[in-house]
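so the lab meeting is tmrw and i was supposed to have these ready like two days ago... anyway. pasting both below. for each one the top line is the aa sequence and the line under it is the structure tokens. i havent really looked at them closely yet so no promises
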Amino acid sequence: MAWRWRFCWIPLLLLWSCVPQPAKEPPRESRFERLQPGEWPALQDDMDLALLQPAIEKSLVFYGRIPDDRMFPLGDAQIPASLLKETLALFLEHLNTGRLDPASLSQSFDLYGLRPIPGNGGALVTGYYEPVLDGSLTPDTAFRYPLYSVPPDLVTIEPGSFDPDKFPAGEKWVGRLQDSRVLPYFTRSEIDFSKTLEGANCHLVWLKDPVDAFFLHIQGSGVIRFPDGRLQRVGYAGANGRPYRSVGKLLIDRGLLPPEGVSMQVIRDFIKSHPELQSEILSYNESYVFFRWVDKGPVGSLSVVLTEGRSVAMDARIQPRGALAFLDTSRPRLSPAGDWIGSEPMSRWVLNQDAGGAIKGPGRVDLFCGTGDGAEQWAGRMKYPGKVYFLLKKTMQ
């Protein structure tokens, strides 16, 4: 990638206006406030605690790769990586001795909850999963819909490296280089329906169905099952920098689906059953994901393997990456056949180990639900209000 910058940094600096502008900073209302011990929730974890320790250790691997003085936001506060790392290490001591009740934890930690925002009672908790899809390394009449690796003309601009006073650290713009100019990268419609990447030599694998490929983009990772039965994972490698737009909301707004009871399965079934509308519906979401082969996975935005039921995606502009949080929400209750039969409470410790194009704002939480059809049934129906709390080691006793 370095060769691109060697020849392009001057036009990139002069032509920032050619690429999409960065997202605005989160509003000041995204403040997390320290709770008094009497305000703490019960912190009763409904999941096997054996999966919590390895999830925490993966965040510690992430913190081990970065400087201790790197700062991460918690609302409008800044938290050093050293404190986040110390929080996890101390929590592991409590976990190993079984001292996870509020009375014990409040002796060593502070708990931060999101300050109520007028008109917003808390978090919105959704789910995502890792699909298993049939694919082929060569196209034919059955396998006709490609997944792409990162195209050779895609460039990433970090404006903060030019003007840190004007642009926040970590802000990235994505575009393409054409005739010494930086332009916005191609949209989903241009890539999938105008075939703008056909000559780019970045085809990774071909799938059977364009709708399955679309939903794989939304999930960000998946397992490819080849005709000989071999399995290989694909993971997120980059994106076109275009904004994410919900096709579910589009279908509801147009009266094509009722606002009640809409799930991922309902949306996908509608699109597949209306081929005359497919290109229009899929093109509405201009965001496009590029993939790479991965040996282990699924891999989140911290470059660590996600843990089913413990890893979540949140907005890294507001919640610290890798941090420990407690999630209090609901989840779908399913019959043995996978049918939705209601909801039930869900509460557990989770780690902020991923990100997503649709996961924006202080109240958005996306829970990784696992791999395959069973995880799809759970993730596709998960959309519940909830509350999220962050734990930090006390800095003064």
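ok protien two:
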Amino acid sequence: MAMSLGSGGGQNASMNVTPLIDVLLVLLIIFMVIQPTTTHGLDALVPQPPPPNQPQQTDINRTIVVQVIDKGPGNQPALKINTDDQSWGGLQDRLTDIFKTRAEKVMFVKGDDNVPFADVATVIDIAHAAGVDKVGLMTAKVEAGQ
């Protein structure tokens, strides 16, 4: 910082940057405080493949997988609960019947590659309305154990 002592021949135009730095530090602190620390989105639960040296044990009555199957462009996707065909209108009632006696309310959704995610999100919303606590998303890689 420059400082003028005495009459050196006129005005000296030196800028004092201390208030500018103070303002910048205050703004930095304000932006750090208001920065959100949590992310918002859908919780995803991914099924883990079994260890390779153990025989695979499947409990068909325990695991519920809702499949969203592509029927081509312009058609509404078809639904299956495990291996049973299901209509869109009766999905919530069927899921309510399945999960009303269960303590562990976990379900998986598997969508075809060409199905819009909006249809998968609709199935997730219907599942939450039916009382399902956790909804996991299945992909082809997870199913193959990769």
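from a quick look at the 2nd one: The longest strand covers residues 106-111. Residues 65-144 form a domain with the Nucleotidyltransferase; domain 5 fold (CATH 3.30.420.270). will dig more after coffe
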